[in-house]
Design goal:
Elements (H helix, E strand, L loop, with lengths): L16 E2 L9 E10 L2 E2 L11 E2 L7 E9 L2 E9 L12 E5 L4 E4 L7 E9 L16 E5 L6 E10 L4 E11 L6 E10 L4 E5 L7 E8 L13 E5 L5 E10 L4 E7 L2 E3 L4 E9 L5 E9 L3 E3 L10 E3 L11 E11 L2 E2 L3 E9 L11 E4 L7 E2 L1 E3 L3 E6 L16 E7 L5 H5 L5 E3 L2 E6 L4 E11 L4 E11 L15 H19 L5 E5 L2 E5 L6 E5 L3 E4 L4
Parallel strand pairs: 6-11, 12-17, 19-26, 29-35
Antiparallel strand pairs: 1-4, 2-3, 2-5, 6-7, 8-10, 9-11, 12-13, 14-16, 15-17, 18-20, 20-23, 21-22, 21-24, 24-25, 24-26, 27-28, 27-30, 30-33, 31-34, 32-33, 34-35, 36-37, 38-39
Length: 536
């Protein structure tokens, strides 16, 4: 719909507040919105106006989608007596949808007890008055051109002087505990006797809960059913019909958000007040909070019961920015409309501590144990270390944490190459083949939900594969020379293999991984010296 409502782009700055007001158009009706953060869109359409947001810097793009539907054009047709009494019991009201280019004709219906006087119409969206003069005949035919959206047509009648009549009374109460009040009466003339007529209620008065019929006066005794079959004759020329209706009771209340502006982690209260129930019995109330979504609270029992939220039980929807809070009351008469909204503005926390975390190169089967030296060709993961026993990651304030990623750009060529190596996830790079000998260091950053960041670093030393063979000494060599040679080799092996690093040695021609825990020892010193490498 960009040709009707042009798209708009606004640059956002951290801490700034941004709001959008849906534009209007005579041919379209606004119905609601969705929003999207960095490609993650809300699932359901949210009715109402989109709330203002405070940009916290945790995403790059915020997209707001406004939804509209084509406005429908309708003709509303009703029937009245000269003094404004509705004749809906005789001539039911109706609504007719109009489409552009459609040919329409509205003709007045006939009844033996009424004389048709004429009609009144408007196309302004407001109902016409009942005053004379009336337009004669019917309205139309005409071709609807789309220049207006609502057509009102009122057909006006006068009752004839006839021998019989049906008197209809509409009694309405507000809620189940309300008192009935007479909201309108209608007389249907009957031109000849005997006669049978079926009389129907008028749904515009409310929900029908019963009826009564008497042939000499109105009765307050309620019987079940909707329509009423009336039989008139010379001995009982009149009938008195009463329809009983119930409407939603006119009850309401109010509430406060205290305080209405807080720092994140502060406590706030929702305090109900000024309940006016008008005879209805209170059952419970509840709230909804809107901010980039909707959260509905559990039921609250008690007209003065406060709902208190602190950092330990914040609803998921609470964050930095403006929230809209509503309340609804449930009584024996039904539910109220949403009362509100009342604003709740949440600012960033007064104090904030940075996240604490570790990263490391780990074996895939030991993700909590970083290693710092491996042999060329080993496969490792570069990960955020998750270990509850430390704990890591950890935020002193209990904030939600987000890992921003590794700083690969400032590493060695091997570290830089990890951009296209391994399998990348939100918290690490998996299945990295350590194929570059040397020292390699890397750092990563993590932030809390308010944008405060911290860094952690690690390193790895990749050593080349080593193949070792015990030297063969010719028999003619002196025993001293032979043993010195062997002692020299043993010392060399100790220097190379001693310590905690993981190395590879040759057993025959098969490479074996050792983690030495002691010194190389000479086990024999004859023509050929041998030694052993303690391992686990």
């Amino acid at each position: 719909m960009s040709s009707i409502f042009p798209d708009k782009i606004t640059a956002m700055q951290k801490g700034g507040q941004y709001a959008a007001t849906p534009p209007s158009h005579p041919d379209y009706e606004y119905v609601g919105y969705k929003f999207q953060k960095d490609g993650s869109q809300t699932g359901e359409l949210t009715p109402g106006l989109p709330p203002a947001i405070t940009y916290d810097g945790s995403y790059d793009t915020y997209t707001l989608y406004l939804y509209y539907k084509k406005s429908e054009a309708i003709a509303i047709v009703k029937h009245f007596t000269e003094d404004g009494q509705s004749l809906s019991s005789v001539f039911p009201d109706r609504e007719v949808q109009m489409k552009e280019g459609q040919s329409l004709m509205f003709s007045p219906p006939e009844h033996a007890g009424f004389s048709y006087l004429g009609y009144k119409k408007t196309t302004t969206g407001n109902p016409p008055g009942m005053n004379k003069p009336y337009s004669s005949g019917g309205f139309g035919p005409f071709t609807y051109d789309g220049s207006f959206k609502t057509l009102y047509i009122y057909f006006i009648y006068a009752a004839k002087d006839v021998p019989g009549s049906i008197h209809i009374r509409h009694m309405v109460r507000a809620g189940p505990n309300g008192h009935f009040e007479n909201k309108g009466e209608t007389v249907i003339p009957v031109a000849s006797l005997p006669a049978k007529e079926t009389v129907h209620p008028d749904g515009s008065y409310g929900s029908v809960i019963g009826r009564s019929l008497h042939y000499s006066h109105y009765s307050d005794e309620i019987s079940g059913g909707m329509s009423v079959a009336v039989t008139l004759q010379q001995s009982q020329p009149k009938a008195y019909v009463t329809f009983f209706y119930q409407t939603k009771a006119d009850f309401t209340g109010d509430f406060e958000v205290l305080p209405d502006t807080i720092n994140y982690r502060d406590t706030f209260r929702l305090v109900p007040k000024d309940f006016r129930l008008n005879g209805c019995a209170y059952q419970y109330h509840y709230y909804k909070i809107e901010r980039n979504g909707t959260f509905t609270t559990p039921r609250v029992m008690g007209q003065t019961a406060e709902t208190v939220y602190s950092i330990g039980n914040y609803p998921w929807i609470i964050g930095v920015g403006q929230h809209l809070v509503y309340m609804k009351i449930k009584t024996t008469c039904g539910e109220s409309d949403w009362i509100g909204p009342k604003p709740l503005v949440v600012k960033g926390p007064a104090t904030n501590s940075p996240p604490q975390f570790k990263i490391g190169f780990v074996h895939p089967d030991r993700p909590t144990q970083p290693v710092y030296e491996v042999v060329e060709g080993t496969v490792l993961d570069l990960m955020v270390i998750f270990d509850d026993s430390v704990p890591t990651p950890y935020d002193p304030d209990g904030d939600t944490l987000y890992f921003n990623g590794f700083d690969l750009e400032r590493g060695t060529p091997f570290i830089q190459s990890l951009r296209s190596k391994g399998v990348h996830s939100d918290v690490g790079i998996h299945q990295i083949t350590m194929d570059s000998v040397g020292y390699h260091s890397v750092s990563g950053t993590m932030r809390d939900e308010f944008g405060l960041t911290s860094s952690a670093s690690t390193y790895i030393r990749v050593v080349p594969k080593i193949r070792f063979r015990s030297p063969h000494v010719r028999p003619k060599s002196s025993r001293t020379g032979r043993c010195r040679r062997r002692l020299s080799i043993a010392a060399e092996a100790t220097a190379l293999w001693g310590g905690p690093s993981t190395i590879a040695a040759m057993s025959g021609r098969t490479a074996v991984r050792y983690i030495p825990t002691g010194q190389a020892k000479i086990s024999s010193c004859k023509c050929r010296c041998t030694f052993t490498i303690p391992s686990v």
